[in-house]
Design a protein that fits this description.
Helix content is 0%, strand content 57%. It has no helices and 13 strands. The chain has a six-stranded antiparallel β-sheet with strand order 5-2-3-4-1-6, with no helix packed on it. Strands 7-13-9-11-10 form a five-stranded antiparallel β-sheet, with no helix packed on it. The protein starts with a strand and ends with a strand.
């Protein structure tokens, strides 16, 4: 899975390929009206990558961006359940994004782009992934946070977090069934 954060006032088409010839598809995009985008891309890797191989992500954004690679095995990216949400906050805010999981087991992956925030605490059932911070000029920063959970039953699952004051955010959530 690829987690891409872009700082751009418009939706930016993103594509990705790797040196093994695998093409990645854009599964979810969340665009915040102030110009913050969170994207999740996936591929069923047919040709394994080796040390020194590259993943190339192409987009036309003019400001800060970041890409983080997450390796999951045994997932079906062609049958993904997708939801995304965005919001602008002027005071403390809670995020709760519901995803209807139709096939179990499923790995739910959430990717959040935020401005100038070092921490996006997730609910207790979510495993956080490494955060990435990208400078975007001046004293500003675009932050990339993510979390995941494996759910063993179909139904509605909630990806939740609490944000501090004055935070702009965009979150894309995707459920990938097991093969």
């Amino acid at each position: 899975l690829l987690r891409v954060v872009v700082r751009s006032p418009e939706e930016v088409p993103t594509s990705a390929t790797d040196s093994g010839g695998n093409a990645y598809r854009l599964d979810a995009t969340a665009l915040q009206e102030a110009g913050l985008t969170s994207e999740v891309l996936s591929a069923r890797v047919e040709t394994a990558l080796a040390p020194g191989d590259e993943i190339r992500v192409v987009h036309a954004a003019g400001r800060a961006s970041s890409v983080v690679v997450h390796h999951f095995e045994g997932l079906d990216p062609t049958s993904a359940d997708v939801v995304s949400a965005t919001d602008a906050a002027v005071s403390s805010i809670s995020m709760a994004i519901d995803l209807l999981v139709t096939v179990a087991p499923t790995v739910i992956f959430g990717a959040t782009a935020s401005l100038n925030d070092t921490s996006v605490p997730l609910g207790p059932e979510w495993s956080p992934l490494d955060a990435l911070y990208a400078a975007c000029g001046g004293s500003g920063r675009v932050d990339s946070h993510a979390g995941w959970a494996c759910v063993e039953s179909a139904g509605t699952w909630t990806y939740d977090s609490v944000f501090p004051e004055h935070l702009l955010w965009a979150t894309a959530v995707v459920g990938y069934p097991a093969l």
